[in-house]
Design a protein that fits this description.
The complex is a heterodimer of chains A (about 120) and B (about 110). By secondary structure, chain A is mainly beta. Chain A contains no helices and twelve strands. Helix content of chain A is about 0%, strand content about 50%. Chain B is an all-beta fold. Classes of the chains: A mainly beta (about 120), B mainly beta (about 110). Chains A and B meet through strand 5 and strand 6 of A and strand 5, strand 9 and strand 10 of B.
Chain lengths: ~120, ~110
């Protein structure tokens, strides 16, 4: 079974608007971490935000926030005030167990910001 | 600028060649990773080194041979590759036993002719 599911292959957003990228996950481990990465065309994977399974508050990092709904097993990324430089591929990922050495990645969502 | 440096950025090789990809980090991280990413696909884990010892090998064919000479360096030796091995190879590092992120390099784009 897929551990991470991203159902939006592509998304478009107007510059300065907010956009939500969906991510659902599947695990039976009570301890896990959820990550969002951005991959521009250059290839580098850029870390955006992290949410631990025991964190009570939703994570925020600047214009990025993670809408964590544990019961629904969803970890959606919200980007506020979109900029042209936000156009990239976005991957949701999960680490099962806090000492695990692997990240499972979703299939990604390509975000295009329209001027 | 990324703190994980990968060389070369681009590599073209024939199926009989032997080449190596190199990765370096100076963040004091004790876990280092090789991921393979095909076009329009997510990264897939190949190998993990923890404290310079191979801890995970995701059933990767023996034509890929990883090496961790010290805690800052990670190599991937390539021999007798197939055209389907053409991909972006990403190196990453992380603190051991840490809930935080993996730091990725920009990748080495490999083409096998």
């Amino acid at each position: 079974a897929q551990k991470i599911t991203q159902t939006q292959p592509g998304m478009f957003v107007q510059e300065k608007e907010a956009v939500t990228l969906d991510c659902t996950y599947d695990t039976s481990d009570p301890s896990y971490g959820l990550f969002w990465y951005k991959q521009p065309s250059s290839g580098e994977m850029i870390f955006l935000i992290y949410q631990g399974s025991y964190d009570q508050q939703n994570a925020t990092e600047g214009r990025y926030s993670l809408n964590f709904q544990k019961a629904r097993k969803s970890a959606n990324l919200v980007i506020s005030a979109s900029q042209l430089g936000d156009s990239a591929m976005y991957f949701c990922a999960m680490r099962e167990g806090f000492e695990a050495n692997n990240l499972f990645f979703g299939t990604g969502t390509r975000l295009t910001v329209i001027p | 600028d990324t703190e994980v440096t990968q060389t070369p950025k681009h590599l073209v090789m024939g199926m009989t060649n032997k080449k190596s990809l190199k990765c370096e980090q100076h963040m004091g991280h004790r876990a280092m990773y090789w991921y393979k990413q095909k076009a329009k696909k997510p990264p897939e884990l190949m190998f993990v080194y923890s404290y310079e010892k191979l801890s995970i090998n995701e059933s990767v064919p023996s034509r890929f041979s990883p090496e961790c000479p010290n805690s800052s360096l990670l190599n991937l030796h390539l021999h007798a590759l197939q055209p389907e091995d053409s991909a972006l190879y990403l190196c990453a590092s992380s603190q051991e036993h840490f809930t935080g992120e993996l730091f990725f390099g920009e990748g080495s784009r490999l083409t096998v002719l």
